[in-house]
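Supplementary Note 2. Why include the ligand at all?

Several targets in our set were suspected to adopt different conformations when bound, so apo predictions alone were not considered sufficient. For every target with a known small-molecule partner we therefore ran a joint prediction. The input for N-oxalylglycine is given below.
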Amino acid sequence: MAPSLPMDPNTWDVISFAVDKAHGVKGLADLGLETLPKQYIQPPEEQIIHSTVVTENSIPVIDLSNWNDPMVAEQICNAAEKWGFFQIVNHGIPIEVSENVKEATRQFFGLPAEQKNKHSKDNSPTNNVRYGTSFTPKAEKALEWKDFLSLFYVSDDEAAAQWPSACRNEALDFMKKSEFVIRRLLQALMKGLNVKEIDETKESLFMGSKRINLNYYPKCPEPELTVGVGRHSDVSTLTILLQDDIGGLYVKKLDSDAWVHVPPINGAIVINVGDALQIRSNGKYKSVEHRVIANGIKNRISVPIFVNPRPSDIIGPLPEVLESGEKPIYKQVLYSDYVKHFFRKAHDGKETVDFAKI
Ligand code: OGA
Ligand code: NI
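The joint prediction is reproduced in C-alpha coordinate form.
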Protein backbone atom coordinates (compact mmCIF):
# COMPACT_ATOMS: atom_id res chain seq x y z
CA MET A 1 0.00 0.00 0.00
CA ALA A 2 1.25 3.47 -0.84
CA PRO A 3 2.01 5.51 2.26
CA SER A 4 -0.05 8.66 2.65
CA LEU A 5 1.35 12.04 1.69
CA PRO A 6 3.37 13.52 4.55
CA MET A 7 2.41 17.05 5.54
CA ASP A 8 5.86 18.53 5.25
CA PRO A 9 8.57 16.63 3.40
CA ASN A 10 11.24 18.64 5.15
CA THR A 11 10.38 17.56 8.68
CA TRP A 12 9.28 14.07 7.79
CA ASP A 13 12.04 11.46 7.80
CA VAL A 14 12.83 11.24 4.13
CA ILE A 15 16.03 9.25 4.63
CA SER A 16 14.28 6.64 6.69
CA PHE A 17 11.56 6.28 4.06
CA ALA A 18 13.64 6.39 0.87
CA VAL A 19 16.90 4.82 2.04
CA ASP A 20 16.33 2.71 5.17
CA LYS A 21 12.89 1.41 4.29
CA ALA A 22 14.04 1.19 0.65
CA HIS A 23 11.09 2.93 -0.96
CA GLY A 24 13.69 4.75 -3.02
CA VAL A 25 13.07 7.91 -4.99
CA LYS A 26 10.39 6.02 -6.87
CA GLY A 27 8.55 5.78 -3.54
CA LEU A 28 8.99 9.54 -3.08
CA ALA A 29 7.84 10.30 -6.62
CA ASP A 30 4.78 8.09 -6.13
CA LEU A 31 3.73 10.27 -3.18
CA GLY A 32 3.25 13.13 -5.59
CA LEU A 33 5.54 15.57 -3.76
CA GLU A 34 5.43 19.08 -5.14
CA THR A 35 8.70 20.22 -3.65
CA LEU A 36 12.03 18.47 -3.59
CA PRO A 37 12.98 17.19 -0.11
CA LYS A 38 15.97 19.21 1.12
CA GLN A 39 18.14 16.11 1.40
CA TYR A 40 18.23 16.06 -2.42
CA ILE A 41 19.18 19.69 -2.96
CA GLN A 42 22.63 19.73 -4.52
CA PRO A 43 25.07 22.64 -4.14
CA PRO A 44 24.68 25.13 -7.02
CA GLU A 45 27.93 24.06 -8.69
CA GLU A 46 26.47 20.57 -9.20
CA GLN A 47 23.25 21.85 -10.79
CA ILE A 48 23.32 21.81 -14.59
CA ILE A 49 21.77 25.29 -14.77
CA HIS A 50 25.03 26.64 -13.33
CA SER A 51 27.17 24.81 -15.89
CA THR A 52 28.19 25.63 -19.43
CA VAL A 53 26.39 23.40 -21.91
CA VAL A 54 27.52 23.45 -25.53
CA THR A 55 25.29 22.31 -28.36
CA GLU A 56 27.57 22.80 -31.41
CA ASN A 57 28.96 19.30 -31.16
CA SER A 58 28.53 16.03 -29.32
CA ILE A 59 30.25 12.69 -28.97
CA PRO A 60 31.05 10.73 -32.18
CA VAL A 61 28.57 8.24 -33.61
CA ILE A 62 30.37 5.28 -35.14
CA ASP A 63 28.77 2.93 -37.65
CA LEU A 64 29.96 -0.62 -37.07
CA SER A 65 28.46 -2.17 -40.22
CA ASN A 66 31.95 -2.72 -41.63
CA TRP A 67 34.03 -3.96 -38.75
CA ASN A 68 36.79 -4.98 -41.12
CA ASP A 69 37.29 -1.52 -42.49
CA PRO A 70 40.44 -0.17 -40.78
CA MET A 71 38.73 3.23 -40.65
CA VAL A 72 36.33 1.85 -38.06
CA ALA A 73 39.12 0.87 -35.67
CA GLU A 74 40.68 4.27 -36.23
CA GLN A 75 37.43 6.04 -35.39
CA ILE A 76 37.08 4.00 -32.20
CA CYS A 77 40.62 4.82 -31.03
CA ASN A 78 40.18 8.46 -31.95
CA ALA A 79 36.92 8.74 -30.04
CA ALA A 80 38.50 7.07 -27.00
CA GLU A 81 41.34 9.61 -27.09
CA LYS A 82 39.42 12.78 -27.89
CA TRP A 83 36.10 12.23 -26.14
CA GLY A 84 36.27 9.08 -24.03
CA PHE A 85 32.64 8.57 -25.08
CA PHE A 86 30.97 7.56 -28.33
CA GLN A 87 27.80 5.94 -29.63
CA ILE A 88 27.72 2.88 -31.85
CA VAL A 89 25.08 2.02 -34.44
CA ASN A 90 24.67 -1.14 -36.56
CA HIS A 91 26.51 -2.98 -33.80
CA GLY A 92 24.69 -6.28 -34.21
CA ILE A 93 23.00 -6.44 -30.79
CA PRO A 94 19.42 -7.32 -31.73
CA ILE A 95 16.89 -4.59 -31.01
CA GLU A 96 14.60 -7.08 -29.17
CA VAL A 97 17.39 -7.77 -26.71
CA SER A 98 17.72 -4.12 -25.76
CA GLU A 99 13.97 -3.51 -25.79
CA ASN A 100 13.47 -6.53 -23.53
CA VAL A 101 15.99 -5.43 -20.93
CA LYS A 102 14.49 -1.94 -20.86
CA GLU A 103 11.03 -3.43 -20.35
CA ALA A 104 12.36 -5.75 -17.62
CA THR A 105 13.86 -2.70 -15.89
CA ARG A 106 10.43 -1.05 -15.82
CA GLN A 107 8.98 -4.31 -14.49
CA PHE A 108 11.49 -4.57 -11.68
CA PHE A 109 11.05 -1.00 -10.49
CA GLY A 110 7.29 -1.34 -10.79
CA LEU A 111 7.33 -4.10 -8.13
CA PRO A 112 6.02 -3.25 -4.65
CA ALA A 113 8.67 -1.91 -2.26
CA GLU A 114 8.64 -5.14 -0.17
CA GLN A 115 9.67 -7.16 -3.21
CA LYS A 116 12.51 -4.86 -4.22
CA ASN A 117 13.57 -4.54 -0.62
CA LYS A 118 14.47 -8.25 -0.52
CA HIS A 119 17.54 -7.23 -2.51
CA SER A 120 18.58 -4.24 -0.39
CA LYS A 121 21.95 -4.11 1.38
CA ASP A 122 20.39 -5.20 4.68
CA ASN A 123 18.30 -8.02 3.26
CA SER A 124 20.07 -9.44 0.22
CA PRO A 125 21.59 -12.86 0.93
CA THR A 126 24.38 -12.06 -1.53
CA ASN A 127 26.66 -9.11 -2.23
CA ASN A 128 26.28 -9.79 -5.94
CA VAL A 129 22.74 -8.44 -6.01
CA ARG A 130 22.05 -4.99 -4.64
CA TYR A 131 18.96 -2.83 -4.85
CA GLY A 132 19.48 0.69 -3.62
CA THR A 133 18.94 4.38 -4.06
CA SER A 134 21.28 7.34 -4.68
CA PHE A 135 24.97 6.21 -4.81
CA THR A 136 26.40 5.85 -1.31
CA PRO A 137 23.80 7.59 0.89
CA LYS A 138 25.95 7.31 4.02
CA ALA A 139 28.82 9.22 2.45
CA GLU A 140 26.74 11.80 0.60
CA LYS A 141 25.96 15.35 1.74
CA ALA A 142 23.17 15.55 -0.84
CA LEU A 143 21.40 12.54 -2.29
CA GLU A 144 20.94 11.67 -5.97
CA TRP A 145 17.53 11.21 -7.57
CA LYS A 146 18.06 7.62 -8.74
CA ASP A 147 17.20 4.04 -7.75
CA PHE A 148 19.21 1.10 -9.02
CA LEU A 149 19.57 -2.64 -9.10
CA SER A 150 23.17 -3.75 -9.45
CA LEU A 151 23.98 -7.29 -10.56
CA PHE A 152 27.52 -8.66 -10.42
CA TYR A 153 27.89 -11.60 -12.80
CA VAL A 154 29.48 -14.72 -11.41
CA SER A 155 27.93 -17.55 -13.43
CA ASP A 156 24.65 -18.46 -15.08
CA ASP A 157 23.79 -20.77 -12.19
CA GLU A 158 24.44 -18.11 -9.62
CA ALA A 159 22.35 -15.62 -11.57
CA ALA A 160 19.52 -18.15 -11.88
CA ALA A 161 19.57 -18.64 -8.11
CA GLN A 162 20.04 -15.01 -6.99
CA TRP A 163 19.01 -12.44 -9.57
CA PRO A 164 15.40 -11.18 -9.34
CA SER A 165 13.16 -13.11 -11.70
CA ALA A 166 11.54 -9.88 -12.98
CA CYS A 167 14.67 -9.05 -14.97
CA ARG A 168 17.14 -11.94 -14.70
CA ASN A 169 16.81 -13.48 -18.16
CA GLU A 170 16.67 -10.16 -19.96
CA ALA A 171 19.72 -8.79 -18.14
CA LEU A 172 21.70 -11.98 -18.83
CA ASP A 173 20.68 -11.94 -22.46
CA PHE A 174 21.80 -8.34 -22.92
CA MET A 175 25.13 -9.15 -21.27
CA LYS A 176 25.72 -12.15 -23.51
CA LYS A 177 24.58 -10.57 -26.75
CA SER A 178 26.87 -7.59 -26.20
CA GLU A 179 29.92 -9.73 -25.53
CA PHE A 180 31.18 -9.91 -29.10
CA VAL A 181 30.87 -6.14 -29.54
CA ILE A 182 32.87 -5.60 -26.37
CA ARG A 183 35.54 -8.00 -27.60
CA ARG A 184 35.87 -6.24 -30.94
CA LEU A 185 35.95 -2.79 -29.39
CA LEU A 186 38.73 -3.96 -27.10
CA GLN A 187 40.65 -5.47 -29.99
CA ALA A 188 40.54 -2.15 -31.83
CA LEU A 189 41.53 -0.20 -28.74
CA MET A 190 44.40 -2.59 -27.93
CA LYS A 191 45.81 -2.30 -31.43
CA GLY A 192 45.92 1.44 -30.86
CA LEU A 193 48.09 0.77 -27.81
CA ASN A 194 50.53 -1.41 -29.68
CA VAL A 195 49.22 -4.57 -28.00
CA LYS A 196 49.49 -7.20 -30.74
CA GLU A 197 48.19 -10.52 -29.59
CA ILE A 198 45.14 -10.67 -27.33
CA ASP A 199 44.86 -14.21 -25.98
CA GLU A 200 42.31 -15.28 -23.40
CA THR A 201 44.52 -14.45 -20.43
CA LYS A 202 45.07 -10.96 -21.69
CA GLU A 203 41.42 -10.54 -22.53
CA SER A 204 40.35 -11.41 -19.01
CA LEU A 205 42.59 -8.64 -17.68
CA PHE A 206 40.21 -6.22 -19.38
CA MET A 207 36.89 -8.01 -19.32
CA GLY A 208 37.34 -10.64 -16.63
CA SER A 209 34.35 -9.45 -14.61
CA LYS A 210 31.07 -7.75 -15.40
CA ARG A 211 28.39 -5.86 -13.59
CA ILE A 212 25.05 -4.83 -15.06
CA ASN A 213 23.03 -2.05 -13.46
CA LEU A 214 19.38 -1.24 -14.03
CA ASN A 215 18.90 2.46 -13.30
CA TYR A 216 15.59 4.15 -12.64
CA TYR A 217 15.26 7.95 -12.56
CA PRO A 218 11.68 8.82 -11.65
CA LYS A 219 10.05 12.06 -12.62
CA CYS A 220 11.27 14.62 -10.13
CA PRO A 221 9.73 17.72 -8.51
CA GLU A 222 12.08 20.71 -8.93
CA PRO A 223 14.55 18.69 -11.04
CA GLU A 224 16.91 21.63 -11.57
CA LEU A 225 17.86 21.56 -7.87
CA THR A 226 19.17 18.00 -7.84
CA VAL A 227 20.94 15.44 -10.06
CA GLY A 228 20.13 11.96 -11.35
CA VAL A 229 23.77 10.95 -11.04
CA GLY A 230 26.46 13.35 -9.90
CA ARG A 231 29.71 14.04 -11.75
CA HIS A 232 31.86 10.93 -11.90
CA SER A 233 33.92 8.75 -14.16
CA ASP A 234 33.35 5.00 -14.28
CA VAL A 235 35.89 2.63 -12.73
CA SER A 236 35.42 0.09 -15.53
CA THR A 237 37.56 -0.83 -18.52
CA LEU A 238 34.63 0.06 -20.79
CA THR A 239 30.97 0.80 -20.11
CA ILE A 240 28.25 -0.24 -22.55
CA LEU A 241 25.19 1.89 -21.86
CA LEU A 242 21.69 1.48 -23.12
CA GLN A 243 19.43 4.48 -22.54
CA ASP A 244 15.78 5.03 -23.35
CA ASP A 245 14.49 7.95 -25.41
CA ILE A 246 14.28 10.54 -22.61
CA GLY A 247 17.83 11.92 -22.59
CA GLY A 248 19.65 13.72 -19.78
CA LEU A 249 23.14 12.21 -19.85
CA TYR A 250 25.85 14.88 -20.13
CA VAL A 251 29.53 14.36 -20.82
CA LYS A 252 32.35 16.77 -20.03
CA LYS A 253 34.26 17.89 -23.06
CA LEU A 254 37.94 17.18 -22.69
CA ASP A 255 40.17 20.07 -21.60
CA SER A 256 37.21 22.38 -21.06
CA ASP A 257 34.50 23.21 -18.57
CA ALA A 258 31.78 22.56 -21.09
CA TRP A 259 29.25 19.77 -21.06
CA VAL A 260 27.59 18.10 -24.04
CA HIS A 261 24.35 16.15 -24.12
CA VAL A 262 24.31 12.55 -25.33
CA PRO A 263 21.22 12.49 -27.51
CA PRO A 264 19.21 9.25 -27.46
CA ILE A 265 19.47 7.59 -30.88
CA ASN A 266 17.11 4.76 -31.61
CA GLY A 267 19.05 1.46 -31.62
CA ALA A 268 22.35 3.05 -30.60
CA ILE A 269 24.49 2.08 -27.62
CA VAL A 270 26.71 4.49 -25.74
CA ILE A 271 30.28 3.37 -25.04
CA ASN A 272 32.65 5.01 -22.62
CA VAL A 273 36.19 4.46 -21.46
CA GLY A 274 36.53 3.82 -17.72
CA ASP A 275 39.35 4.54 -15.30
CA ALA A 276 40.89 1.05 -15.62
CA LEU A 277 41.49 1.65 -19.33
CA GLN A 278 42.69 5.21 -18.81
CA ILE A 279 45.23 3.88 -16.32
CA ARG A 280 46.34 0.93 -18.46
CA SER A 281 46.70 3.16 -21.51
CA ASN A 282 48.77 5.55 -19.38
CA GLY A 283 46.28 8.34 -20.06
CA LYS A 284 45.97 7.92 -23.84
CA TYR A 285 42.33 6.84 -23.65
CA LYS A 286 40.21 9.15 -21.51
CA SER A 287 37.75 8.20 -18.81
CA VAL A 288 35.73 11.39 -18.78
CA GLU A 289 33.36 12.91 -16.29
CA HIS A 290 29.68 12.49 -16.91
CA ARG A 291 26.42 13.04 -15.07
CA VAL A 292 22.69 12.66 -15.46
CA ILE A 293 20.22 15.43 -14.80
CA ALA A 294 16.89 14.82 -13.10
CA ASN A 295 13.78 15.17 -15.22
CA GLY A 296 10.53 16.87 -14.25
CA ILE A 297 8.37 15.37 -16.97
CA LYS A 298 9.13 11.70 -17.42
CA ASN A 299 10.67 8.66 -15.76
CA ARG A 300 13.95 7.61 -17.35
CA ILE A 301 15.77 4.29 -17.35
CA SER A 302 19.25 3.23 -18.40
CA VAL A 303 21.14 -0.04 -18.37
CA PRO A 304 24.94 0.11 -18.17
CA ILE A 305 27.15 -2.95 -18.38
CA PHE A 306 30.43 -2.28 -16.63
CA VAL A 307 33.13 -4.38 -18.25
CA ASN A 308 35.83 -4.65 -15.62
CA PRO A 309 39.14 -6.27 -14.75
CA ARG A 310 38.78 -9.00 -12.13
CA PRO A 311 38.97 -7.74 -8.54
CA SER A 312 42.26 -9.63 -8.06
CA ASP A 313 43.93 -8.04 -11.12
CA ILE A 314 46.60 -5.40 -10.88
CA ILE A 315 45.96 -2.33 -13.01
CA GLY A 316 48.77 -0.08 -14.17
CA PRO A 317 50.20 1.21 -17.47
CA LEU A 318 50.70 -1.68 -19.93
CA PRO A 319 54.28 -2.68 -20.80
CA GLU A 320 53.47 -2.19 -24.52
CA VAL A 321 52.52 1.42 -23.86
CA LEU A 322 55.71 2.14 -21.97
CA GLU A 323 57.94 0.32 -24.48
CA SER A 324 58.83 3.48 -26.33
CA GLY A 325 60.23 5.08 -23.18
CA GLU A 326 57.04 6.91 -22.16
CA LYS A 327 57.04 7.69 -18.42
CA PRO A 328 54.28 6.00 -16.41
CA ILE A 329 51.87 8.46 -14.80
CA TYR A 330 50.07 5.76 -12.82
CA LYS A 331 51.29 3.11 -10.45
CA GLN A 332 50.26 -0.53 -10.26
CA VAL A 333 47.23 -0.92 -7.98
CA LEU A 334 45.03 -3.82 -7.01
CA TYR A 335 41.73 -3.38 -8.83
CA SER A 336 39.59 -4.30 -5.80
CA ASP A 337 41.37 -1.57 -3.79
CA TYR A 338 40.63 0.92 -6.54
CA VAL A 339 36.94 0.00 -6.60
CA LYS A 340 36.68 0.14 -2.81
CA HIS A 341 38.12 3.64 -2.89
CA PHE A 342 35.44 4.66 -5.42
CA PHE A 343 32.55 3.33 -3.35
CA ARG A 344 33.80 4.78 -0.06
CA LYS A 345 33.05 8.36 -1.10
CA ALA A 346 30.32 10.37 -2.79
CA HIS A 347 30.64 11.06 -6.51
CA ASP A 348 33.41 13.62 -6.90
CA GLY A 349 34.19 14.05 -10.56
CA LYS A 350 37.58 12.75 -11.63
CA GLU A 351 39.11 12.41 -8.20
CA THR A 352 39.03 8.61 -7.97
CA VAL A 353 41.89 8.30 -10.43
CA ASP A 354 44.23 10.24 -8.11
CA PHE A 355 44.34 7.00 -6.11
CA ALA A 356 46.51 5.51 -8.87
CA LYS A 357 48.60 8.58 -9.73
CA ILE A 358 52.33 8.44 -9.15
C1 OGA B 1 26.48 5.19 -14.50
C2 OGA B 1 26.08 6.27 -15.42
C3 OGA B 1 24.50 7.14 -17.00
C4 OGA B 1 23.05 7.03 -17.35
O1 OGA B 1 25.59 4.40 -14.11
O2 OGA B 1 27.67 5.11 -14.16
O3 OGA B 1 26.88 7.13 -15.68
O4 OGA B 1 22.69 7.55 -18.41
N1 OGA B 1 24.86 6.23 -15.96
O5 OGA B 1 22.29 6.47 -16.58
NI1 NI C 1 28.85 6.45 -15.21
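The CA atoms of residues 11 and 295 lie 24 Å apart. The two ends are 54 Å apart (CA to CA). Comparable summaries for the other entries are listed in the accompanying table.
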